[in-house]
């Protein structure tokens, strides 16, 4: 019986079109997969480096990366401060040129800066390879509040602004800010100060605003004159007073009291020490 040799079927051994397609795709996907892996590693490393988290594992990772990568602080920029000096901010932040920028906790630095007297809040940014940017928003003192024989800086809302005594910029703030005196004068001051800003001729003469009975204000002028303002009608009273100043120069006369509590008139008292006739205790009708 003749022997039949077995020959391979070359048509059956050829890979299918699907197999060829998958092989091509695999060759194309391998570089893409490597690229995606590298991007993931870079993104993860950037997150660790730039993260402000205070978690112990995150701090440890940042420190390890900081030892591997030679990035150091070369520039520290500070913005937004007028009452707080750069030196005070740097001292609180405890950052120095040459420090490893990756080992700096921006959240920790921010918390330290926020404890400074005039700082409301701050933003600390780390820009690789070597820049730290600090932006502060200050609680600007709005007035000086005298209460129970103590002088305190307050902001516009009446909250006390922490100070460090009558030195440096704190002393400058005391000297240039309006003085308000009495119970609840701190919370009521903003409305009065805003109203006075509309009457510069009067505002420039005022040395103190005294809160009376938590209801109304007396204004103490530089020459010793006291102005009694009505309750909740400061704008109208100051308008009347400005009119009298324009017509009869009332604020330039040596009087001790100008009582404006009545809406249709004001009562004026002269200094008791004066021996020559000036404006006596009189009532001036107002038809303005």
From TrEMBL:
Which compartments does it reside in?
Cell inner membrane; Membrane
The Gene Ontology CC terms held by the record are: cell division site; plasma membrane
Concerning PROSITE patterns, the annotation shows: POTRA (PS51779)
Residues spanning the signal sequence: none
POTRA domain boundaries: 71-139
- Does this entry carry the keyword Repressor? no
Q: Which residue ranges does UniProt annotate as crossing the membrane?
A: 32-50
Q: Which UniProt keywords apply?
A: Cell cycle, Cell division, Cell inner membrane, Cell membrane, Membrane, Transmembrane, Transmembrane helix
Q: How does it sit in the membrane?
A: Single-pass type II membrane protein
Q: Which GO terms describe its biological process?
A: cell septum assembly; FtsZ-dependent cytokinesis
State the family named in the UniProt similarity comment for this chain.
Belongs to the FtsQ/DivIB family. FtsQ subfamily.
Q: Which HAMAP family match?
A: FtsQ_subfam
Q: What does this protein do?
A: Essential cell division protein.
Q: What is this protein called?
A: Cell division protein FtsQ
Whose protein is this, by species? Entomobacter blattae
Starting at the broadest rank, the lineage of the source organism is: Bacteria, Pseudomonadati, Pseudomonadota, Alphaproteobacteria, Acetobacterales
């Amino acid at each position: 019986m003749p022997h039949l040799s077995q020959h391979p079927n070359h048509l059956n051994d050829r890979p299918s079109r699907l197999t060829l397609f998958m092989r091509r795709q695999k060759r194309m996907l391998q570089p893409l997969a490597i690229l995606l892996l590298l991007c993931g590693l870079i993104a993860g490393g950037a997150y660790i480096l730039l993260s402000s988290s205070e978690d112990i594992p995150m701090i440890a990772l940042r420190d390890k990366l900081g030892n591997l990568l030679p990035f150091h602080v070369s520039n520290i920029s500070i913005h937004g401060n007028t009452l707080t000096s750069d030196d005070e901010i740097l001292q609180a932040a405890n950052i120095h040129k040459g420090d490893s920028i990756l080992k700096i906790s921006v959240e920790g630095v921010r918390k330290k800066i926020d404890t400074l007297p005039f700082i409301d809040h701050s933003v600390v940014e780390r820009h690789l390879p070597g820049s730290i940017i600090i932006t502060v928003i200050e609680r600007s003192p709005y007035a000086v509040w005298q209460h129970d024989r103590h002088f305190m800086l307050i902001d516009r809302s009446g909250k006390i602004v922490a100070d460090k005594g009558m030195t440096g910029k704190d002393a400058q703030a005391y000297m240039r800010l309006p003085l308000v005196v009495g119970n609840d004068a701190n919370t009521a001051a903003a409305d009065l100060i805003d109203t006075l800003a509309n009457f510069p001729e009067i505002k420039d003469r005022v040395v103190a605003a005294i809160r009376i009975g938590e209801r109304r204000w007396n204004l103490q002028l530089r020459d010793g004159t006291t102005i009694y303002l009505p309750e909740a009608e400061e704008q109208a009273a100051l308008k009347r007073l400005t009119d009298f100043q324009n017509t009869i120069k009332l604020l330039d006369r040596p009087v001790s009291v100008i009582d404006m509590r009545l809406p249709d008139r004001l009562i004026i008292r002269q200094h008791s020490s004066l021996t020559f006739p000036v404006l006596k205790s009189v009532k001036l009708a107002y038809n303005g």
